[in-house]
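Re-run with default settings, no changes from the original entry. Doing this only to confirm the output is reproducible before filing.
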Amino acid sequence: MGQGRSLRELRAELSFLRSSKRAEAHERGSAAVVELQWRTMREQAAEEPDFTGFGELVEAAHAEPRLRLLYVFSSHWTLGFSSCTGYPFRDEVAIVPSHSGSPFRVKRHPLSDDVLGEAATAEEAVALAMRHLPTDLGPAVAGTAEQDG
C-alpha cells in the first residue's frame, strides 16, 4: 500500500499513523539525520546550565566542520562521534567534558579507559580529537558499525 511513498504522504491518508522527526530525517538521508542529532544535542546541552563543561564541549565540537559531518551522541555525558548513523556506532573519537575543574579528556571510545590526551579548554579538546581522526574520514553514512554503510 505505501511502497515508494513518503511518511508525510502516508500520514495524510492514514490519520492514525505517527512518525518521529528522526524517521522523517532518515527518509531524507544520512545528512539530515546528522543535522537533527546535532540540533538535539545542542538543545540538550542548553538545558543543562549547571554542567557548563558539557555545553562548552558541544558548542566547540559543533563549530568544527569535520565533526559536524559526523553523527554525535552522548554516553554518560561523553560526546562520541560516529561515521555511521545507526547503533552500534562506529566510534571515531570521544571527548569527556570538564567537570569540577578536571581537564577535558579525548578518548578513542566513549566508555574506554584509553585516554589519548587531555586539554584545558573545550576548543583545545576538539583540536586534539581532530588530530586523532583519519584524514580521509567523510560524512556519516546510514547504517551501523556492523554493516558496510
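Residues 30-46 form the longest helix (17 residues). The CA atoms of residues 52 and 99 lie 8 Å apart.
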